[in-house]
Amino acid sequence: MHWHLELQEHDISEATLAAWMNWRQAHPLHERAWQRAEAFAQRMSDIRSPSQRALAQATLRPTLSRRAVIKQLSVLLAAGAGAWTLKDTALVQDMTADYHSRIGEQRRIALADDTQVQLNTDSVINVVFERESRRIKLLRGEILITRDHSADGRLLSIDTADGRLEAALAQFSVRQRVGFTQVSVYQGTLLLSPSLQRREPVVLKAGEQVSFNDQGLMLRQTVALAAPAWTQGMLVAQGQRLADFLDDLSRYRRGHLACDPTIADVRVSGTFPLADTERILFAVADTLQLDVQQFTRYWVTLKPRMA
């Protein structure tokens, strides 16, 4: 997808074209991935063909409910995209979820009971408010939830891929990661119930951070009582490995971001405004005496600076 973005630019350089061909030829898996991406693009092109235009326009009408959109998307899949499975992709999550944020965006939402929700970069939630229950489903990304005395006091449930959290009055963040969920509590208490654990819920108190999967707790440690820095549009590192720092930073920008393995353990400290990730990269590189190698605008690597 990185190369598809590059090749859609109007002023493609000869160097970019050469790099693209070199990448395709570097490994059979690269070429196979490219062929699959081309097939995907063709299927999307089919949707824009005259025979599908009316259906596509109907599906994208903003007045349709999410249920109607999903129903008509299923028709699109059968008519124009064959075996292309969209159910779990980020695109369909964004189209059908109640709230989502773009890459690099932090978004604030006030729910009907005065619960405050802040979405970090590239995050998606569904919200179900009924007479007897209040539920949030975290589909992707990270959220900060604040329930103070202005909320109606009913129990709020947060479902992730790994289990359920319940809170009355509390402030806490929840991040869905690959294979586990991370929870940090800043005020109040939470009840945690991993999906496959049949014991009593785990009680989490302010100042605790927990990582858990559907089987149970993986890690329990302390955390500062202040809300995370991203809620103020900042990224904070305190002696963090460069590789881990770049992994965090990559959540706020498109494309590939990494470093040479020989400098992966170099330590990074500082407070950086997330509004300009390019500026962060060059500031870190200048401080650590590193080179920023921009293969293309979507493929950036930090390397040791040559003498």
TrEMBL record:
Sequence ranges assigned to domain FecR N-terminal in this UniProt record: 2-39
Cited Pfam families: DUF4880, FecR
Lineage top rank: taxon: Bacteria
Domain FecR protein: 98-189
InterPro entries: FecR (IPR006860), FecR_N (IPR032623), Ferrdict_sens_TM (IPR012373)
Protein name, as recorded: FecR domain-containing protein
Species of the source: Pseudomonas azerbaijanoccidentalis
